[in-house]
Amino acid sequence: MDKQQATARIAMIFETEFEVAPERLVPEAHLFQDLGLDSIDLVEMIGALQKEFGIQLRDSDEARAIRTLGNLQDFVFNEIQKSEAADGIRS
Amino acid sequence: MQLKRVVITGLGAITPMGTGIDALQKGLAEHRSATVSMRGQWRHFLNLHSLVAAPGPDLDEKRVPRQSRRSMSRMSFYGHDAAQQALADAFGTGSAGPAHFSPGRLGCIIGSTTGSPIALNETFETMLPDRDIGKLSAVKFFQCVSHTVAMNVAQCLGITGNVLATNAACASGLQAVGAAYDMIRLGRQDAVLCGGAEELHPSVTASFDVLFAASARFNDAPSQTPRPFDRDRDGIVCGEGAGILLLEDYDHARARGAKIYAEVIGYHTCASGDHISQSSRLALIQCLRQALAGAGTAPDEIDYVNAHAAGTLQGDAEEAATLRELFGGRVPVSSLKGHIGHTLGASGPIELIATLLMMRDNVIYPTLNLSNPASDCEGLRHVTATISQRIDTILKNSFAFGGINAALVCRKINSP
């Protein structure tokens, strides 16, 4: 999966689960201040991302540094690549 | 200590008759039955004999902001809408109700039998097949907790006073009104949004069905059940909805020139202490006598009794014996469950609201489906057709599993 595909699927989660208008989904948007999410939304977001991409995010320390949508996109894409690499090693 | 006087200044309801108190009043005036067949939806449940219910309306849930909406189930949406109606009734549409009270002086007490039965079932259906906790939504918990309606309504409306949930099955809502009355008259709150809310689910009907307390003989003729006090009654019909009242310190209400439906003048709640499911006439009599004593009112001053009478064999007979003992055949008695089914924890406040509307209009609506009073329910002045009669003082009765009883006495205020 390339980053453009991952970004589009993340955007879909923001639009359907959190009712954020697509034009507000710019990389520099702060998740709390600009997109209106709160701490419970982040918990729901982790669950939605895990389900969407089949990755485990719950115990990641890097996730705590996420502030903007761009941070989130980078983090998720990185985790997808790590997961795909691990799958490649196993196979 | 000088106790405060407590008045009712706002009403809101979602009922099987529709949205709003006018829809409730209209449905009762037209003698409509809200009971419908649930055979289509519930046929997949093995050994569920009762296939009738009184569903409420579907609301536009998206009207509630997302971050308030996510923790709400159907019963919380009902409670929230009814609470907004009550505030609009008291302060005008668009007016922020809590802004009319000092911080912490407006409370919220809303009862229900359990947390959302829909959310509880979804939780177990999600978790149990694979015993996988990871599949659970983080917000589902907030729909499952027993105080889900009270906390969601308070959060959504910005209420910062006492927030409580009374959970005593079918007496939950009237206990909430009684608790609000006590809180205001003790001076601990200036006003309280109070009442009850419930939502329909086959597991709720099933809990009565397994006790042989749900109606099962009228699945092909839904409008003929439930049949309170009738010789052919065969159990309850579960309904859903919410009834919310604004109770307010009389002085506060008078100072702002509020419309006052009635004054709450007496309340009592007690338990029978002798059986988990059977109601007891001795405990009911005790409860009503204490409520009347608290009101300083003799039984012959009561103009109308709105009975609990849900259409169960044992419960209706015990209540009839109670009312016969206290009121003989003088006071008009009716139950509204023939019209709107048994909305369980919401039934007390919904039926109290209907009673206040009857008091306002000086009219008494009958017990629908009471064709032939049962021999064990005789000796009362059953209302079987609409009566026009002056009503100044009413008694609302509720009782519940666990031997829990609750009774409230209200009196009209003609010149606030």
Description:
The complex is a heterodimer of chains A (91) and B (416). Chain A is globular and about 40 Å long. Chain A is built from three helices and no strands. Chain A has helices spanning 3-17, 39-53, 69-90. The mean pLDDT of chain A is 91. Chain A is mostly helical and 91 residues long. In chain A, 57% of the residues lie in helices and 0% in strands. Chain A has one domain (3-79): ACP-like (Non-ribosomal Peptide Synthetase Peptidyl Carrier Protein, Chain A), CATH 1.10.1200. Chain B is α/β, with parallel strands linked by helices and 416 residues long. Chain B folds into two domains: 7-255, Thiolase/Chalcone synthase (Peroxisomal Thiolase, Chain A, domain 1, 3-Layer(aba) Sandwich), CATH 3.40.47; 265-411, 3-Layer(aba) Sandwich (Peroxisomal Thiolase, Chain A, domain 1), CATH 3.40.47.10. Helices cover 33% and strands 19% of the residues of chain B. In chain B, strands 1, 2, 5, 6, 7, 8, 9, 10, 11, 13, 15 and 16 form a twelve-stranded mixed beta sheet that branches. In chain B, β1 and β2 form a beta hairpin. The mean pLDDT of chain B is 96. Classes of the chains: A mainly alpha (91), B alpha/beta (416).
